[in-house]
Specification:
Oligomer: single chain
Distance between the termini: 83 Å
Shape: rod-shaped
Helix content: 40-55%
Strand content: 15-25%
Structural class: alpha+beta
Length: 465
């Protein structure tokens, strides 16, 4: 019993000493690291050593397969979209990791979670992947006191480089034929410049939180690259591609409030002219001409700010249709005015003909009266006096007869008034129907037919590739 009690402390002491020796051995530099130092290798922060034969222009050796370069791309936001230049700026953390089997790590260093942070300037000592970004405009790295970046060395001989960046790329897929109902797909694509898919393979993951997105003129969504985009076909070989797809859909609300509703109201205001009597020319003309000028001004103001497009945009189609409807209202009133002018001209000609006819009849009557008086003078004085008194009285009776319009003239005026009434009444029903029909056609084409056609075209393209 006493012996067993004495053995327990001895066993504990032996275990403690063994553990201490094991820890001391683990803290001692390993043989490869010491050999690298003895051969004159480059030692960095007592964390790793690069052998003197290390070459930055040679791909790190692998176990036979392609070298895996792994990306982590947490997207902070899409900071800017310039649709006039077809470019967008992405703010993200650009992180990539790759194995570097040629370096000798100091296993006695304090690895903590398996990696050690060192100065990002040491990235110049390593071979780095020759990754390019397709359609790149600029790659900006913010600096405060130093470059905002980090370099981590993993105990399993991997290099992890990360930097805060603003990447500006060209979005070649931007087409503005459906502006402002347009949708676009842009791609951030990373690939090696000199190593094909047999030597280097790109993979990774990305993340995007819409809650951090600032308000833009587009709604933004980020998805994985389509399968046909994950391989870039070169002239002689294929290259591995990694990245993501950015989907942009323009916010329609501001355009509805600033363009669609006001222009629709102007078109409906033109219908008020159909209820204004055609005889009130200034009121009706001023209303229609003013609406035409306002729509022309709106068209010029809007088209000056529309992105460059090879086709007529949806906004231009809408404004041109609104201008056409108001112009047709003006044409309708012009037809009425032309009818009134023709009627007035015909009436003037009729009055001139009647005045000529009356003057000729009056001239004939005066000649017959003179001849009668001369006859009476030859017959005797008493008869002459009676006749000369009777003639003026008959003339005065004719002059006192009320002037009445001929039945033909009344009939023409009635037909004119009926024409004006029927034309305005027909326009009152026709123009709202045309505007409603145009709306049905417009929104169906640009919201249903065109997106479906683009989707089918994209599926055909994916099947072809």
């Amino acid at each position: 019993m006493m012996r067993s009690r004495m053995l327990i402390p001895s066993i504990l002491v032996v275990m403690f000493m063994g553990k201490t020796l094991q820890d001391r051995n683990e803290r001692l530099p390993n043989g490869k690291y010491l050999d690298c130092i003895e051969k004159g290798g480059k030692v960095v922060s007592h964390v790793f050593c690069l052998p003197p034969c290390y070459r930055k222009d040679v791909l790190p050796p692998t176990d036979g397969g392609p070298l895996l370069v792994y990306f982590k791309l947490p997207v902070s936001e899409i900071s800017e979209i310039d649709d006039h230049k077809s470019i967008l700026t992405i703010r993200l953390n650009y992180k990539l990791r790759w194995p570097e089997s040629r370096m000798a790590v100091n296993e006695s260093a304090d690895w903590g979670q398996g990696e050690i942070n060192i100065s990002p300037d040491n990235i110049d000592l390593f071979w780095t992947p020759d990754v390019i970004i397709h359609d790149l405009v600029s790659f900006n790295k913010p600096e405060i006191l130093n470059q905002v970046g980090a370099l981590e060395i993993f105990k399993n001989k991997k290099v992890y480089y990360k930097v805060r960046s603003d990447i500006t790329i060209v979005c070649k897929a931007m087409e503005f034929g459906q502006f402002p109902l347009d949708k676009h797909k842009c791609y951030l694509m990373l690939t090696s410049f000199g190593y094909d898919s047999l030597h280097m393979n790109l993979a990774g993951k990305f993340s995007y939180q819409k809650e951090n997105q600032r308000t833009l003129s587009f709604n933004v969504d980020i998805n994985k690259l389509p399968k046909y985009k994950t391989v870039f076909a070169g002239s002689s070989s294929n290259y591995s591609v990694y990245g993501f797809e950015i989907r942009l859909s323009r916010s329609l609300g501001p355009f509805i409030l600033s363009i669609y509703l006001p222009s629709a109201m102007f078109v409906m205001m033109s219908w008020v002219s159909f209820f204004v009597p055609p005889d009130i020319v200034p009121a009706r003309i001023v209303l229609l001409v003013t609406l035409c000028l306002v729509l022309i001004n709106m068209f010029n103001f809007t088209t000056a700010r529309i992105p460059v497009s090879n086709a007529v945009t949806a906004m231009e189609v809408w404004l041109l249709a609104c201008m056409l409807l108001v112009f047709l209202s003006l044409v309708e009133y012009t037809v009425i005015l032309r009818k009134i002018v023709n009627h007035n001209r015909a009436l003037e000609r009729y009055k001139k003909d009647m005045s000529r006819q009356k003057s000729s009849e009056l001239l004939n009557g005066q000649q017959s009266s003179t001849a009668f008086l001369l006859q009476v003078e030859d017959g005797g004085g008493e008869t002459q006096t009676q006749v000369t008194e009777l003639l003026p009285k008959e003339c005065r009776k004719r002059c006192k007869k009320p002037k009445t319009k001929p039945k033909s003239q009344n009939r023409v005026e009635a037909n004119l008034n009926l024409f004006k009434l029927n034309l305005d009444r027909g326009a009152t029903y026709l123009f709202p129907f045309l505007f409603l029909l145009f709306n049905c056609f417009y929104w169906t084409v640009y919201l249903v037919i065109m997106p479906r056609y683009q989707k089918d075209h994209l599926m055909e393209q994916e099947e072809t590739n």
